[in-house]
Amino acid sequence: MKRELFDADHDLFRESVAEFLKRDVVPFHAQWEKDGIVPREVWVKAGTVGLLGHGVPEEFGGTGLDDYRYNQIVNEEICRAHASGLGITLQNDVMAPYMVGLTTDEQKRRWLPGFASGELITAIAMTEPGTGSDLQGIRTSAVRDGDEFVVNGGKTFITNGVNADLVIVVCQTDPDAGAQGFSLIAVERGATGFERGRNLDKVGMKAQDTAELFFDDVRVPAANLIGTEGQGFIHLLQNLPQERLSIATCAVASADHVLQHTIEYCRERTAFGRPIGRFQNTRFVLAELATEVDIARTYVDRGVELLNKGELTVEDAAKAKWWTTEMCNRVMDRCLQLHGGYGYMMEYPVARAWQDSRVQTIYGGTTEIMKEIVGRGLGL
After folding, report:
1. Sign (positive or negative) of CA dihedral 155, 157, 160, 163
2. How many whole angstroms separate alpha carbon 40 and alpha carbon 51?
């Protein structure tokens, strides 16, 4: 189905993103997967060509364009290039609302220029070893001591955890206040007592640095409080819809990318004297997958329109997130099956995409949590 979401400026931007990935990412990504991390200079190159800082005011080095369609284009092209190691999506889609919308003027002057240029890499630390989707179970603490917070605890599965220069840490600041007892504290690289653990060995997304973080009496200036003290949980709930829509955009783009590869494979691969795409079962499978991807993209594009208007609801974002990521896994699995034994070989793109996509139904809130959100929205 023809998309009508983008205009000529978006199309030009897409071309520049694709060119950057072709030139500065794709030739090196296999080595980054072996290394388990993307070099920091790639972030600076991305900032130079305008891939970072959408929504950041021009006075701080950003584009000043508060239009999520630019973020969506970056996400889609990264997925088409199979550049799963880039943490740019997290910087643009997850971190920007905190860094732009919740920071003070002083914090903006301190952090946003580097955020937009790629010299300041950021991360958000929510998940703990004993706490996943249940954010109210967070135990990392931040105790006020004069003009400082003293942070203690540990986080895990933190995207950009090794490269990050600034980590927004979700902390419990008042154990007796329930949901009003959480705050967001920005911990900067080099803070005494702030240590990084393992660069975790994951099933997929091998080039993406995902780390454990530890905080042992880390003293953080009170000026590093993000947003309002005691309102951290509210800030998270306000920003999670964009994060979940971001995951949905990636899920649809990844599924579409692998589907197109598989269609070409089925045209060329022969069995019993003819291309396997000539068999009715193959055509039916591909027809089903093409329909699912098209319908999912239509829903996500509508979600982008609503996000730009400030009208995307928590429930609609949850619907997009769980449906598209489950759909993506189905597409990956069935496309791999159509490749036969070759689909299980890492030299084929479908195998790596299958590995990388599996986590999408887990991070950003599991499918089960998304359904719970939708169910509650029904008044149940």
Report:
1. positive
2. 15
CA–centroid distance for 11 within its chain: 22
Backbone angles phi, psi at 308, to 5 degrees: -60, -30
Q: Could you say which residues of the chain have pLDDT below 70?
A: none
- In the numeric block, the tokens 């009715």 are attached to 280
pLDDT tens per residue, range 285-310: 999 999 999 999 999 999 999 999 99
- Tell me which residues are annotated as active site: 243
Among the residues of the chain, which ranges form H helices?
A: 8-24, 29-35, 40-48, 68-80, 88-89, 96-101, 105-117, 232-268, 280-309, 314-338, 349-357, 367-377
Cα separation, 303 vs 144, whole angstroms = 40
Give the per-residue pLDDT at 131.
81
What pLDDT sits at residue 189?
97
60: Cβ–Cβ under 8 A, 6 or more apart, which residues?
A: 108, 109, 112, 113, 115, 116
CA 142 to CA 220: how far, in whole Å? Answer: 9
